[in-house]
Structures are given as C-alpha cells and as structure tokens.
Amino acid sequence: MSDRIADSEKKGLTRADEVRLAIEEDIFLGRLRPGTRLDEESLAQRFNISRTPIREAILQLVHAGLVEKQPRHGAVVAPLKLHRMVQMFEVMSEIEGLCARFAARRMSEEEKQALKRLHDASNAHMKARELDAYYAVNREFHEAIQAGSHNEPLQEIARGLFARLAPYRRYQLNHPSRINDSFDEHGGVVDAILAGDPEAAYTAMRRHVTIQIDIFAEFVSIMGGNGIQ
C-alpha cells in the first residue's frame, strides 16, 4: 500500500477517493492533459492497489465531468469546459441561495448553533492554510445549510450539483487569499441565518457560490490553461 493511500485511510478516505484526488490534482495542474488516456493497469501499479478502486475513481471523475469515456479509447481526460461550469455555477448559486433563504426561516436554534460551530471550526484550518481540512469542514457547512432548508427536493438537487462541482470548488481554494475570502463569505451567510434574515442569507450565499467560478477560471489560467474551453 502506498504512503499516500495509508495517509488517506487515516483521514477516513477510501482508496478510490485517494486515487480520484490525485488524478484531479494532475488534471488541474496540467500533468494530465485533455485527451490523455487513463490506463487502469498503470494506475493500479502507480498506487499499488487493485483495479477495483481505480474503476470507482474513474467513475467518480466521469460523473464530475473531468473524464469521459470514448469508444475504443476508454477513459480519457476531458477538456475543462468553462461555459459549462459557468452554467452549472449559475444554477448552483440559485439552489444554494434558496437553501440559505429557507434555512434562515426554518433552522432550529440547535441547528443554527451547530452551523456556527462548523464555521468556527474552519477558522483554525483557514489560519493554518490547511486546504484539505478546510474543504472538509466547508462541505459539512454547505450540507448543514442544505439540511436546514427542510425541503427534501431542494436538498436532492443541491447534493447532486454539489457533487458535480466539488472538484472545482475544492481547487479554487488554492488561489491566493481565496481561503480567507471563503471564510469571510461564510461568516456573512452565518450572520444572516442566525439573525433570521432570509433575503440577506440568500444574497450572501448566492454571491459566495457565484464568485467561485471567476476564482477557479483565474486559477486555471495562472496554471497554464490546461485545455480549458
């Protein structure tokens, strides 16, 4: 078992998660260019694991739109389609904005305090620039607001979109100062929800999600474009 995978298990990640995160990094940093074939055998040797978690990781990457299946070629790295991401973030901003609006109206006091604790917990990770740890709490933060909407159909849509956009949301945190700005934006959302102000919560969350696509696009540009369309 590789050191990376051993470390990932300590963090509660599966082997498929470890492989997926490593391939995401290779794609975003330009080490895997669009059109590059992902060979299961080579990846299994690289990570010193069986092909089963490799296949699971590839399926996750296909679902996220970072990899596509092609006839006779198998799984290949897909081009990063900026216009598609913009459209998805536009929808996500509205969906999560609605979640925040309903959460401000419907969250119990216990749920509000749990949300505040998540925000407070992310502060130490932000100050230490522990991006992976911050992103893990960030995901819990968004999931708590989605659950706090107490609207099951809305939660289902939000979860699906969040999963599709997760790689992009995670990597935009590498942009200089982004983690600090993200924390501050979360603070605005928390303040509005605690105050029971639905419109302020909607506006703060919508702005938080919308700004991420600009940050991600700029980050990709700085890293060399990596075939973005």
UniProtKB/TrEMBL annotation:
- Molecular function terms, GO-annotated: DNA binding
| SMART domains cross-referenced by the UniProt entry | FCD, HTH_GNTR
Instruction: Tell whether Metal-binding is among the UniProt keywords.
Output: no
Species: Azospirillum rugosum
Which ranges carry the HTH gntR-type domain?
13-80
Keywords annotated in UniProt: DNA-binding, Transcription, Transcription regulation
According to UniProt, the name of this protein is DNA-binding GntR family transcriptional regulator
Family annotation (InterPro entries):
GntR_C (IPR011711), TF_FadR/GntR_C (IPR008920), Tscrpt_reg_HTH_GntR (IPR000524), WH-like_DNA-bd_sf (IPR036388), WH_DNA-bd_sf (IPR036390)
